[in-house]
Specification:
- This protein has about 400 residues and is α/β, with parallel strands linked by helices.
- It has helices at about 25-40, 50-60, 70-80, 85-100, 120-160, 175-185, 225-230, 235-240, 255-270, 290-300, 320-330, 350-355, 380-385, and strands at about 45, 65, 165-170, 200-205, 210-215, 245-250, 280-285, 310, 335-345, 360-365, 370-375.
- The chain folds into 3 domains: about 75-145, no CATH class; about 165-330, Rossmann fold; about 335-385, no CATH class.
- The strands form 3 sheets. Strands 4-5-3-6-7-8 form a 6-stranded mixed sheet, sandwiched between helices.
Length: about 400
């Protein structure tokens, strides 16, 4: 598994309401205790969040450590954080999770009283621990604010030379980093393990229209992503908010595709970006049967793709050209326009800029002039207005 452990046994329970003391009830606790002893388990993991009381009771009743879902996610995050920013975000989430769970942990923290001379050593230690954690939370927030200030300055510099950002979003292990590598030629870690990407990554790519965009890879989403994690990883997810177009990467081979889609859209709703133009990218078609794959490509890769679907394989690159065309069509800023130009041949820098940033449909020579029929971004064509044919 992504956290480095191996599963020795699984137990499933259905009950109408969670048990307030142990989540699963005393009978199930005894059953799990017996299984844990028989398989010599080091850890019991609950695919559910535990309240401080439930966690404390389960640690007392079970023969090994107990972790809930959020603790596991934070552990995986901690393993994959590489940059200073990623490490700070993980630490902040861990501290915020830990703070309300300090009270009553262990007999040494029993509270004896509140008067002079009657306050127990446990309460004193508890208050000390709380103060230490709160101070550290405050410091981590300040450090993260510094990181965000730097990121904001970098973004402002990028906005001075406007280049649209396209953000990859999706359920964890949908293939975002593999697609990022395929489109950019980068070598970002792509792994089947959950949350292999924690730190935002930006690379420039060129679209068929010759426009440049910045592609951003982001952390994967999961069902019931704890709100504290969304808050802690705000810096990582800022690129999603700034993006002009979102690419929602989905695993076309997954049997839980619709459920995963709903969970991603729930997080996008929390980030208040559901109104942004969005292209659904059905990835991993190389895992489908030939007939199913061809039907999917025929259905999704025909016609305009402003906010539609594109089927592709990030691993093999099949369908990536269709995705680039779809991004081109979805971008609203700096639209593509056509123009006729006459440029003196001695204007080598201008001709080079036209060749580098526009599509040249025709080129004719009239004496020392080059007559061009082009299409390109409005901003670039605007800078060449003195060479445009009168009447365009």
């Amino acid at each position: 598994m992504s956290a480095g452990g191996s599963v020795a046994a699984e137990v499933l329970q259905r009950r109408p309401h969670p048990d307030p003391a142990t989540l699963i009830g005393s009978g199930k606790v005894e059953e799990i205790a017996g299984i844990a002893l028989s398989v010599e388990a080091d850890l019991v993991l609950f695919d559910h969040d535990l309240s401080p009381t439930q966690l404390r009771n389960l640690e007392r009743l079970l023969p090994c450590r107990v972790l809930d879902r959020t603790q596991l996610i934070l552990d995986i995050f901690a393993r994959h954080a590489r940059t200073r920013e990623g490490q700070l975000q993980v630490e902040l989430a861990q501290l915020q999770y830990m703070l309300p769970r300090l009270a009553g942990r262990g007999k040494q923290m029993s509270q004896l009283g509140g008067g002079i001379g009657t306050r127990g050593p446990g309460e004193t230690q508890l208050e000390t621990d709380r103060r230490k954690i709160q101070r550290r939370i405050d410091q981590v927030k300040l450090d993260l604010e510094s990181v965000r200030t730097v990121r904001k300055q970098q973004r402002q510099r990028r906005e001075a030379v406007p280049v649209p950002t396209v953000a990859l979003v999706g359920y964890t292990n949908a293939g975002k980093s593999t697609l990022f590598n395929t489109l950019t030629g980068a070598h970002v870690l792509s792994s089947s393990r959950m949350f292999a990407t924690l730190d935002p990554k930006l690379r420039a790519i060129e679209l068929p229209s010759r426009r440049k965009v910045l592609l951003s890879d982001t952390v994967g989403f999961i069902r019931n992503l704890p709100h504290t994690l969304v808050t802690s990883f705000r810096a990582t997810l800022e690129e999603v908010g700034q993006a002009e177009v979102l690419l929602h990467i989905r695993d076309a081979s997954s049997t839980y595709g619709e459920e995963q889609k709903a969970q991603v859209e729930k997080v996008l709703g929390e980030l208040e970006v559901l109104a942004k133009p969005r292209i659904e990218v059905l990835n991993k078609i190389d895992r489908l049967g030939e007939a199913e794959r061809e039907a999917l490509i025929a259905r999704n890769n025909s016609g305009p793709k402003g906010e539609g679907e594109v089927a592709l394989s990030a691993l093999t690159g099949e369908g990536s050209e269709a995705l680039l065309r779809a991004i081109d069509e979805a971008l609203k800023s700096d639209p593509i326009i056509e123009a006729e130009m006459r440029v003196p041949q001695q204007e080598g820098a201008v001709l080079a800029a036209i060749d580098a940033g526009m599509i040249v449909h025709s080129r004719e020579y009239e004496g020392n002039l080059v007559k061009l029929s082009v299409s390109g971004p409005t901003s670039l064509v605007g800078r060449m207005r003195r060479f445009r044919t009168r009447g365009d």
